[in-house]
Amino acid sequence: MLNLVLFGPPGAGKGTQSEYLIRKYQLVHLSTGDLLRSQIASGTELGLRAKLLMDQGLLVPDEVVIGMIESKLTEHGESAPGFIFDGFPRTVKQAEALDDLLAHHNTGITTMIALVVNEEELIRRLLKRGETSGRPDDRDEATARRRVSVYNNETTPVASYYEQQGKFAAINGIGTIEEIFASICQKIDEAQA
Ligand code: AP5
């Protein structure tokens, strides 16, 4: 199985690149942000509680997102050719839980690929998307900057977690979508060699 963690700050291009990757490698795309937004759209209690945090740019509790990923892995079972984890794990606790869950399915993470983009470019992209996406967490600069700050403080340690396992690759997330996609594919080839 090819199991990728696509990592990077808000606006780095994880969702954009995931769309290309799932087509090329036939992977199942698991985005915790999308799963949470679907809960919000369905008006579930989990969604209502998550929305309060997401609208402020804060993380949803680990147990909630780990539970969502667990049920998705069970749903797809070992028949999937692999998974792309987008926006998950965001804490070391989530990364440890993911390793345990994958071990139960007799598999593990192949590599983490981190998209590196500077803060001003991230804010520019998020505010531009906010003009049309309707995402409440894209609407104002203060919330966008809080999301980047939460990433810097709470999520960056996840990169070291994978680096210690020899499963970390960073690439420049600035450039055309095609150029970045080519760099990601090269890192995947290296990880599988
Ligand atoms: P989530 O939905 O995961 O959002 P995010 O990480 O903030 O990521 P984004 O979707 O904003 O950006 P992206 O990197 O996917 O970039 P995209 O491709 O869209 O999380 C939302 C919230 O849910 C969190 O804040 C948290 O509250 C909660 N949550 C989710 N997962 C959680 C977890 N595991 N634990 C706890 N809480 C969790 O691109 C952005 C824009 O840039 C687009 O407009 C795109 O067109 C453009 N763009 C893309 N590539 C390029 C390029 N190369 N050049 C120019 N523009 C580009």
Automatic annotation (TrEMBL):
User: Which of this chain's residues are annotated to bind ATP?
Assistant: G11, A12, G13, K14, G15, T16, R129, G175
Q: Which GO terms describe its cellular component?
A: cytoplasm
Say where the protein is mainly found: cytoplasm
Q: Which UniProt keywords apply?
A: ATP-binding, Cytoplasm, Kinase, Nucleotide biosynthesis, Nucleotide-binding, Transferase
Oligomeric state and interaction partners are given as: Monomer.
Q: In which pathway does it act?
A: Purine metabolism; AMP biosynthesis via salvage pathway; AMP from ADP: step 1/1
User: What's noted about domains in the record?
Assistant: Consists of three domains, a large central CORE domain and two small peripheral domains, NMPbind and LID, which undergo movements during catalysis. The LID domain closes over the site of phosphoryl transfer upon ATP binding. Assembling and dissambling the active center during each catalytic cycle provides an effective means to prevent ATP hydrolysis.
Summarize the protein's role.
Catalyzes the reversible transfer of the terminal phosphate group between ATP and AMP. Plays an important role in cellular energy homeostasis and in adenine nucleotide metabolism.
Protein name according to UniProt = Adenylate kinase
Q: Which PANTHER family match?
A: NUCLEOTIDE KINASE
Superkingdom is Bacteria
The listed locations are: Cytoplasm
What InterPro entries does this protein's entry cite?
A: Adenylat/UMP-CMP_kin (IPR000850), Adenylat_kinase_CS (IPR033690), P-loop_NTPase (IPR027417)
Pfam families, per database record: ADK
This enzyme's EC code(s): 2.7.4.3
Q: Name one GO molecular function term.
A: AMP kinase activity
- Any signal peptide, and if so, which residues? none
User: Which species is the source of this protein?
Assistant: Fibrella aquatilis
Please list the reactions this protein catalyses: AMP + ATP = 2 ADP
Chain spans, region NMP: 31-60
SUPFAM superfamilies assigned = P-loop containing nucleoside triphosphate hydrolases (SSF52540)
Q: What is the lineage of its organism?
A: Bacteria, Pseudomonadati, Bacteroidota, Cytophagia, Cytophagales
Please give the family membership noted in the entry: Belongs to the adenylate kinase family.
Tell me which CDD domains the record gives.
ADK (cd01428)
Task: Give residues annotated as binding AMP.
Answer: T32, R37, L58, L59, V60, G87, F88, P89, R90, Q94, R135, R147
Q: Name one GO biological process term.
A: AMP salvage
